[in-house]
């Protein structure tokens, strides 16, 4: 296990670290540095994360994901941790979000794991940026999920599919009707290339609580700003509400 402190550990009450784990070398973990407070009374809800550009590395989102972890979450992001050997070149796939859930669920049951009995496996969110948001929507029917965050993203319709990047998952708009959990869209305003797709998705979701928020920063969001910028605040608070009842 290698670990690295990002962005002074975040603003939450549990200073976070970025870590690798040999039992899931294909992903990067963001977690409170000290796991001692977690166990019977308080457990760590889970966020699984897909990256922009279908990238097999969360390097563009480190500050943002670390900030979320500092509020008492474990984040399992697609892609090996920087500084260790890994296949960064290939495109990521939606199924890697489910692999992250499978892994942390098994860790929670493994008496030899540092995470044994510390994970709230009943409180799991899937999220991602751009292509990663499509990946989160692609796995949105998984019954283990309690909420979904779609960041700078939205489903393509038949008219604009040709503008999508190769390798992006392409769920049909009709799949939005199958979502059974609260969903939040966080977009970058009218200059965000995903703005129309995301706002169109939001207008079609009628059966579950849905939130649409916009900050006029364009497609790149505020992920790389210290503590993830405004996006870090919104995402952390949404997850505290949905997964911690706060």
Q: What would you call the shape?
A: globular
| Separation of the first and last Cα atoms | 32 Å
Beta-strand residue fraction: 15-25%
Rounded radius of gyration (Å): 17 Å
SS summary, helix count: 5
Biggest sheet details: 9 strands, mixed
Helix content: 10-25%
What string gives the helices and strands in order?
EEEEHEHEHEEHEH
Mean pLDDT: 94
Task: Tell me the number of strands.
Answer: 9
Name the strands of the widest sheet in spatial order.
1-2-3-5-4-6-7-8-9
Summing up helix and strand content along with how strands pair, one would put the structural category as: alpha/beta
Low-pLDDT windows of residues: none
Furnish the topology, listing elements before pairings.
Elements: E1 3-4, E2 16-19, E3 27-32, E4 44-50, H1 62-69, E5 74-78, H2 95-109, E6 119-129, H3 131-138, E7 145-151, E8 183-187, H4 195-204, E9 210-214, H5 229-244
Parallel strand pairs: 4-5, 4-6, 6-7, 7-8, 8-9
Antiparallel strand pairs: 1-2, 2-3, 3-5
């Amino acid at each position: 296990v290698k670990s690295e402190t990002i962005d002074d550990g975040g603003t939450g009450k549990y200073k976070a670290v970025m870590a690798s784990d040999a039992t899931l070398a294909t992903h990067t973990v963001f977690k409170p540095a000290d796991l001692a407070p977690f166990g019977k009374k308080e457990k760590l809800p889970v966020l699984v994360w897909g990256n922009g550009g279908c990238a097999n590395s969360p390097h563009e989102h480190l500050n943002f994901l670390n900030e979320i972890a500092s509020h008492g979450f474990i984040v399992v992001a697609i892609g090996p941790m920087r500084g260790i050997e890994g296949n960064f070149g290939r495109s990521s796939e939606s199924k890697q979000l489910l692999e992250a859930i499978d892994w942390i669920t098994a860790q929670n049951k493994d008496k030899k794991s540092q995470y044994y009995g510390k994970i709230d496996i009943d409180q799991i969110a899937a999220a991602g940026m751009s292509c990663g948001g499509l990946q989160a929507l692609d796995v949105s029917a998984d019954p283990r999920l309690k909420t979904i965050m779609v960041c700078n993203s939205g489903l393509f319709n038949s008219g604009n599919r040709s503008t999508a990047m190769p390798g992006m998952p392409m769920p049909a708009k009709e799949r939005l009707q199958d979502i059974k959990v609260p969903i939040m869209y966080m977009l970058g305003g009218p200059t965000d290339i995903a703005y129309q797709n995301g706002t169109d998705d939001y207008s079609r979701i009628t059966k579950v609580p849905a939130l649409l928020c916009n900050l006029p920063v364009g497609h790149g969001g505020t992920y790389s700003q210290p503590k993830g910028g405004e996006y870090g605040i919104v995402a952390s608070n949404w997850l505290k509400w949905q997964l911690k009842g706060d």
